Amino acid sequence: MRIFVLTGAGISAESGLGTFRDTGGIWERFDPMKLATPEAFAADPDTVHAFYNARRDNLRASAPNPAHAALARLEAGLARGGGELFLCTQNIDDLHERGGSSRVHHMHGELFKARCTACGAVHHWRDDLGREDSCPDCGARGTLRPHIVWFGEIPFGLDAIGEALARADLFVAIGTSGSVYPAAGLVQEARYMGLRTCELNLEPSDNAHAFDERAYGPASDVVPEFVERVLREIG
Ligand code: BV8
Question: N or C terminus of the chain: which is more exposed, having fewer CB within 10 Å?
């Protein structure tokens, strides 16, 4: 069995990382158009760096929750049966990896990576990032940016995502409001391709109507329940 899972900020909410559109979510306190765009970074890099430095602090202090661990079990269980889990996340945190998942596709980039705008090199970067830092590869100073996909930038690996969707049997969206494209359009693509679709979320998303199956509740409850059911089905 081949399953395509798309996760969003909701799967990391119980790990203490903010979501974007819930009450008190990140974008309620910060305007994404002022922080998560290349134009914002060009206009005021120090403010954008400070925003992501604060989120790196938060991420370093966080831990994966049972939903992340359950997806790691699903990956191993499907592989044992000759199947596949393609785990695509909109999240820039590393909680899937820390929860035990070995193959994670970060379509919106990664908070613990920095990219040099002079030479293009991508580096692991867990600490504060700023204009005073230099690229470890080319030595240029002040050219490092978060390796994150901002609004108006093209998400990473869209071809690999389309290929994985085309070979999957089931599409599962977890912890996402279905409000950011092209990620939010994947469920419709899955339906056109004839996949069964399932939503696991705290409450119905903007796309809820597009799903064949739905289960609502905190991810740390509904995701392990879903995974145990699938692993029983595949034996
Ligand atoms: C692009 C990184 C051109 C930054 C992010 C149509 C087609 C294509 C593009 C567009 C389009 N229409 C509009 C656009 C432009 C734009 C867009 O979608 N705008 C929106 C606002 C309308 N899209 C773009 O700019 C994208 N790029 O279009 O390039 C292109 C594209 C393709 C081909 C050619 C050209 C780039 C978008 C990426 C932006 N970067 N993140 C950062 O993190 O700082 S997006 C940001 O929102 C996050 O990455 C996040 O992942 C994403 C989506 O949010 P969610 O993850 O869904 O989080 P949210 O808070 O919204 O929802 C949380 C859910 O969890 C809720 O439903 C809640 O109920 C639930 N929940 C809460 N607690 C729990 C829970 N569930 C379970 N358990 C819980 N405990």
Answer: C
